[in-house]
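Table S2 (text version). Query chain:
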Amino acid sequence: MAVEATVSQKIRNLGFVCALLVVATHVSWAHDGLGPSWVVWNLVDQGVSRIAVPFFFCVSGYMLAGHFGTAGWFGNEVAKRVRSLLVPFLVWSLAGALLALPDASFGAIFGEGRWLAALGLDLRVGPTWNYALWYVRALFLLVLVSPVLGGLVRRFGRAWLVAAFVLNLLIDVNDCLPVKLRAERIFTAKDLRDASEEVIRSVGGV
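Corresponding structure-token output:
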């Protein structure tokens, strides 16, 4: 899919901003308990920065969707992702596991079937020794199921998107299987009230 130059530039600009937000999320900030600096930290770390990774997923989906329906699109796209996602994922997962060897035995990492988890291929758990790669694995898995997701969107349209949003609130795949209910993600009026009171106390220095 050919992307207009202006659109491509906008994506690159937003990608740069989102990359900075990802870094900000993983940086430890010094803040004064529940004071004003905590409010700023919480706004960035738990608020604004949370758009970053979804943005990258959306861009990847946008690029992939442009090839839907073309001859051999699925095989071509999977082959490209094997080179750009799966191979680097396996290499760096193995590197992370090997770096852990001074603190863990070889058997603890690779023994008794643990080699799948060491390579990040055990879908029951997140990437064990290099968890930061969860995004790469999730993106590759989404490419594999993209024909199903694309079919659902074409068949049910916005109704499927609403259903997917609700499912995201109700279940926790945690980048691994099996899924489980996550009722703690359903915010109640009391949760919102408590959060508001905490922010007010923070700003007021109470």
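Notes on Table S2: The beta strands are 171-172, 180-181. DSSP finds ten helices and two strands in the chain.
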